[in-house]
Amino acid sequence: MSGTGGTPYAPHTDSETAAMLSAIGVDGEEALFDIPDAVAFDGEFGIEPRSERDIRAECSRMFARNDDLVEFLGRGHYGHYVPSVVDHLADRAEFLTSYTQYQPEVSQGFLQALFEYQSMLVELTGLPVANCSMYDAATALGEAATLADRVRSTSGDVVLVPDHLREGKRAVLSNYCAGAELTVESYPMADGNADIEALADRAGDDAVMVYAESPTVRGCVEERLAEIGDVAADADALFTLGSDPVSLSVLQEPASVGADVVVGEAGALGLPTAYGMGLGLFACRDEFLRQVPGRLVGAGEDAAGDRAFTLTLQTREQHIRKERATSNICTNQAWVALRAAIHAATLGPDGLVDLANDCVRGAESLADRLGDVQGAAAPVHDRHHVREFVVRVDQPAAAIAEDLEAEGFAVHPIGEHLLQVCVTDLNAERTDGLVAAFEEVI
Predict the structure, then answer these.
(1) In what helix (H) or strand (E) does residue 52 lie, and over which residues does it extend?
(2) pLDDT at 227 (0 to 100)
């Protein structure tokens, strides 16, 4: 809209708008848009006006038709209890209305919270640089691959990933790599962990990055991370490790096993299970500081000598200096990172470790119980697990999953005779019902 009756965010006068339309040879603004008649707004929404009370009642009836399932789903999407303080603090207006903190003089509180979030990732990973700009674990992995391509000194165009990699994550990685003329190839797994010997045979001069996960997509703790790091170093390839902040509180520090970059899903803290919305973890070695995608919050001093925070190293972003851009990621995921930081701070170091240990013990206990059910064997992989594990069933897995759904429980069928089960603090109290349902349907 234009003129005095339009929006203040498009303040052109009627004469200015007419001049622009004349210059491009159209009669009106409508000619600039090709909107099918079937969806074009004709001035009426066709929605009967109702009171707030009526609408809430209708929504309640609609939501009541949803299946009431207890989810034992995981594979990269994890739900933990989010303390109410996270909502109460993160929902403050000064946080909700701040998309990106370009003006440090009015954003010190938010910038400090993001700096603390970055500091938590540095402590968990052992790597000195971390940001809060990745959409999710998949985009963080894609950004790690393109970073590897930029910083590696010798030729190479192959990104090596484990056979056990979530399809969606691999698809995003392949999309990133296609634009950078990189190729994604897999290395085999052995009982849920990387086949180190096969990886060493495959990793040669053409490898630009070696990626491993701990825990893996099947929940297995990768036991030979240092050896994977050695393989990557011998091939002059970057070693990127995938994990999450809860698991990192009890597993090997990535820096200690030679990881150059750490990626993952930081939304395991601060977010409910969303199966889409996330927060990508991204940390790396100091030498890659000026190649990090997205933005960093830095600490310095103001004119009075007081400690102050600001977004820094933004000259590499595409909206400022396109020819120097390292990435087209231009988000700060600030509010989601804030939630993760509040959650982590609320738990504290001991609470975070306790949560991770519960994830280990819960998976071990449930696997033992399901393994005792006739017609099932668990865990399939003779490894330590975090949150989730694989169950082998004699009957077709898809049929078992369907029968369990009818009993009110959701699990992942991942093979002809393989199911995957994930247990966290949110569903731990429902494990008795899941075991009973297993016994009923198998």
Answers:
(1) helix 52-63
(2) 97
